[in-house]
Amino acid sequence: MNTVAIDIQQLTKEYDNGRGCRNVTISVGKGEAFGFLGPNGAGKSTLVKMLVGLTAPTSGRATLFGEPIGSLAAKQHVGYLPELYRYQEWLTGEEVVRLHSRLCGMDQSTIKPRIKQLLDQVGIGKRGIDRVKHYSKGMQQRLGMACALVNDPPILFLDEPSSALDPIGRSEVRELLKNLKNEGKTIFLNSHLLEEVESLCERIALLNNGQILRHGQVSQVLYTQTKWRFKVGGFTPEILPWLSETSGIAIKRYMNPSISSATSVLPVGQETVWLEATIDNEEQIGWLNTLIVNQGMTLYNVEPVKERLEEWFMDAVSGLSHRGEQ
Amino acid sequence: MTTVIGMTWKELMRKKVVMMTLIMTVLFIIVFSFIARILGESSGIDPSQQLVMQFINGASILTLGFFFGSFILAFLIIFSSFSSISGEAEISMMQSMLTRPIQRWKWYLGRWLGYTLFGIVYALVLYIAIVAVANTYATVPQSLVLHIQSFLLFALTVPLLVTVTLLGATLFSALGNGVFMTMLYGAGWLGGMVEKLSAGADMKPEMARSLYNITGMISLVMPADAIQRKMLAVMLNVDQLAGMFNIDQQMRGGMGIGQAPSATFIFYAGIYTVILFFWGMRRFYKKDF
Q1: Which residues form the ABC transporter domain (chain A) (predicted)?
Q2: Do B93 and A80 touch (CB under 8 A)?
Q3: Which parts of chain B sit beneath pLDDT 70?
Q4: Residues A60-81: tens digit of each pLDDT
Q5: Which chain B residues contact residue A144 at CB under 8 A?
Q6: Cα-Cα-Cα-Cα dihedral sign, residues A311, A314, A316, A318
Q7: Whether the predicted interface score ipTM is above 0.85
Q8: How far is A132 from chain B (nearest CA, A)?
């Protein structure tokens, strides 16, 4: 990992009602996009609030580019988009961004062009002269992005950045985030939109009941090493128990919707199917290949099972108790 | 901090509560002018008492004006600031701003100064309007020194109310703070009314003592009404007139001053404001959003 942008060590926040988060340890590199996932009430927002200096930790420590969280020096590095926020409805969009730029101590000469550039970038454009009270939720979310970016911060904490947006808006925000990542910004993304996390983040962590349940590279998380799929031609149902028994590998037929039409035109007993095998090591893949070919079947394709993040998420939290929102 | 003050002023200029207050002020001044004219015209019945009656009429008009004026001022202060911290936190507006590189104490002070300065400017306009109307129809004190002292006392309720409201905003929800401040100010006002009414009334010493104790305790918690009474006492030079007549018994419709608080009480109100200010600032500094 390159320079550490966010370093969290045993960070804990305990509330009287038992909520909060405990002993969270995460390190996020400069320029990295990190996805933070978890069910409602898991403590994700609490952690982010501690990192941006809104909430004091009970114990543990964290730094942003080496500066202790909550310090003015750390806040200089931060752009933050809170969840479920509203801006001053008596101000115009431009005035809100100007207010944030002044709070950041930006130079007066740079503020005006920066506001115009940002409002165009987030898709508000000329509606920046309208009062915020006339903005839709989506427009307010765009305005929030503009405010978060106003001081060109190296670290962005985004709490559900596109939850109020329509599909077009989400796509635009995703594109914007990708561009920001390409510019080298560190992104800490707290989102329920797992597709968003999957497309943007290199690493993720899953929080449940205030504790990190799983974490790792998205690429590792999404490829379940123990499951492989085999596209087999000339398959007969009787061969499946024999194949499992002979190889000693748990194999089942996998119903792939994409090949159902192809199957329907084949004669019964001579189908092209997908088989899914749960293996212990890669040598078993070769062994299974050999068995399939030796039985006169055609092996079209062999691939590891790539899980969608949603499946991974559901798998990780299923059966666990959640605190929920109450 | 100037950014926060500017933001507060812009907020006040554009919020409906300020517009409502300004409309109420204009209506009040119009109605007050009519009443002042009627009261002013009724003086001079007995030529031997004309000077005293003119003074009593002027005092009555001023008392009436500041009785309602202090109400409008409190309305502006409380209802423009009661949702400033907790209300902003409830809609996450505060969260996006407090992550900016600004010290929390500066934010709190900026908000406090914004509300207080705005309130003092409004108080000055209101003070001048009330005195001008009263001066048109009756004899009012002309001493500039007295007016400066009176205005400072009139304006002292502004930092007091802003301080208590901001402290309440760190303790309660926006709605809870609005209710709390209305109740608190109402209790102070009620205590003041009891004080005024009992001042001119003939009652047993034990009963009077009990009433003074109750109103005194209320004044300690919410000194706004007591400060207003002190302001009128200073403006009307009640201490020097005490040997000549009882102004409370002379004034109409219970529009008296009652027992004006001492200079020590004003000092207490100042210290009270300072303590509550730092308490509020500390709570804000430590608050988790």
Answers
A1: 6-234
A2: no
A3: 42-51, 199-201, 239-258
A4: 999 999 999 999 999 999 999 9
A5: 96
A6: negative
A7: no
A8: 12
Q: How far is A88 from chain B (nearest CA, A)?
A: 7
Strands A67-68 and A59-64: antiparallel
Residue A192: what residue type? Answer: H
Total count of domains within chain B? 1
Query: Does B100 contact A53 at a Cβ distance shorter than 8 Å?
Result: no
pLDDT tens, residue by residue, B107-155: 999 999 999 999 999 999 999 999 999 888 877 777 888 899 999 999 9
| Residues of chain B found within 8 Å of residue A76, distances taken between Cβ atoms | 101
Which residues form the domain of B115?
2-286
Report how many helices (DSSP H) and strands (DSSP E) chain B contains, helices first. Answer: 13, 0
Of all residues in chain A, the one with the smallest CA distance to B6 is: A99
Name the DSSP class of B174: H
Q: Which residues of A115-140 are buried (b: 16+ CB within 10 A; e: fewer)?
A: beebbebbbbeebbeeebeebeebbb
Please count the other Cβ atoms lying within 10 Å of the Cβ belonging to residue B244: 9
**What chain A residue is nearest to B103 in terms of C-alpha separation?**
A72
CA A220 to chain centre: 14
What DSSP element (H or E) covers B101? none
Domains of chain A: 4-218 (3.40.50.300), 225-260+268-306 (3.30.70.260)
Cross-chain residue pair A105–B101, CB shorter than 8 Å: yes
A with B: how many residue pairs have Cβ under 8 Å apart? 73
Across the interface, of B14, B99, B102, the residue whose CB is closest to A80 is B99
Q: Is B200 exposed, middle or buried (0-12, 13-18, 19+ CB in 10 A)?
A: middle
The minimal CB distance from B102 to the residues A52, A87, A103 is found for A103
